[in-house]
Amino acid sequence: MGSAMSERNHRRQRWAARGALASVALAALLPLVTGGLKGLLLLAVGLAGLALTAAALWWVLSRRGPARTAAAALAVVAPVAVITLFAVANLLWVVFASLLLWCLAVWSGRYALRSTGLRPVRVKEYRTPPPKRPFLLLNPRSGGGKVGKFGLKEKAEALGAQVVLLDPDQHQDVTALARDAVAEGADLLGVAGGDGTQALVAAVAAEHGVPFLVISAGTRNHFAMDLGLDRDDPSTCLDALTDGVELRVDLGFADERPFVNNASFGAYGAVVQSPGYREDKVGAALERLPELLTRQSGPRLTAGADGTTIADPQAVLVSNNPYRMDDPFGFGRRERLDSGKLGVLAVRVDSAVEAAELLLAPRPEGLTVLTAQHVVVEADASHLEVGLDGEALTLPAPVHCRIVRRALRVRVPRNRPGVPEAPPRLDWRRLRKLAAAVGRTAAPSRSWRT
Question: Per-residue pLDDT for the chain (450 aa), expressed as one digit of tens each?
């Protein structure tokens, strides 16, 4: 019976791969078959419109005054004009049909590859006793007042936690508060606040080997998202105090400053220093970016990542584990938090043509994506402006980034939404082998373990 079931799975796999390849072929041929030469010309016009839109967006970011206004208008007019041309030629339905075929090809191809038996790595869960003396720091302003809205202080105290409400009107050293709590016998440290505050307390927890509790009461909660926590209701994170498990995750450092998400250098690192950034992020970015992108201000950067040199990028992002870049639905998520690798993303764009290439080329020269265990960011200046988990810092150059594998014990609820399973990367060569297979799948069936 097992053999028959295996053969059925292989058959589904083969036909899914064939369906993916057939859908791709139909998506490419449909404009040519239905529109002939006119369809080919309109396809070229569509690609040119995308390139022009990308160039216009570059001008919006890198220009001021009338030039920026004209570029913004062009960014709107170009795609509208392309859509209008297709509609006039009665080929707009072809565009939508081709897009649907591409979506079908992606879905079918991923189904075929997912059924090969290859599975993503899952972070191992450790069952440990509940903490006896948990200590929590709550920022009442974080996330627009989620601490008060969800009654986090009262719920935490009812579960036996010692709670300290941070004073929003004066600076408090959360690192010192966490260390004092450990010295007084706390066996768990937790934070309801932004990722920058989370990182500072997480470093203390890692230093003393006590569990760390993330309460998703910040604005974006990227770390909480990648841990699989509920970002809509932060009170559910408190379930970890009574019914929780532990994960061993990595912790990043820029020099001696910890980060749970990323360290940003260059354009973004400079933008977050703007006085009005918190109140108006878009306005602050549009104010600073023209000089930063055209290299009229800011230091020239050089990044070294495990022997690879990245020369003169405008922006460098070093992340605690790499972000997914191949899937629009999982973009900005980290598949793992325990790989022991830093993700490196560097961008260098010096013209509108390079901006268009960044959008349209499968492997643009202006984009560098890699992983490393050690990254050094140098500059032709004595100090670097850094965005560390969204917090504005200035560090002496060069800045050494490193990662400590599984340094942090994170306590999470046993029942939580979880991280969506990352779909397999589309590999058309493998799909061709799967489609041509007769009795067995072309890829070995195996599962990765932590």
Answer: 545 556 777 788 888 888 888 998 888 888 778 877 777 787 788 889 999 999 999 999 999 999 999 999 999 999 999 999 888 888 888 888 888 998 998 889 888 887 655 455 567 899 999 999 999 999 998 888 899 999 999 999 999 999 999 887 788 899 999 999 999 999 999 999 888 899 999 999 999 999 999 999 877 788 999 999 998 899 999 999 999 999 999 999 999 999 999 999 999 889 988 887 777 888 888 889 999 999 888 899 999 999 899 999 999 999 999 998 765 555 578 888 999 999 999 999 999 999 988 878 878 889 999 999 999 999 999 999 999 998 899 999 999 999 999 999 999 999 888 766 666 777 788 888 888 875 554 444 444 333
List, in order, residues 6 or more apart from 369 with CB less than 8 Å away. Answer: 322, 325, 343, 344, 345
Which residues make beta-bridge pairs with 372? 342
Cα–Cα distances (Å) from 299 to 270, 367, 400, 450, in that order, read 10, 19, 17, 41
What pTM, to 2 d.p., does this model score?
0.85
For residue 293, give every residue at least 6 positions away whose Cβ sits within 8 Å of its Cβ, in sequence order, or none: 61, 62, 267, 314, 349
Kindly state the greatest CA–CA separation across the chain.
78
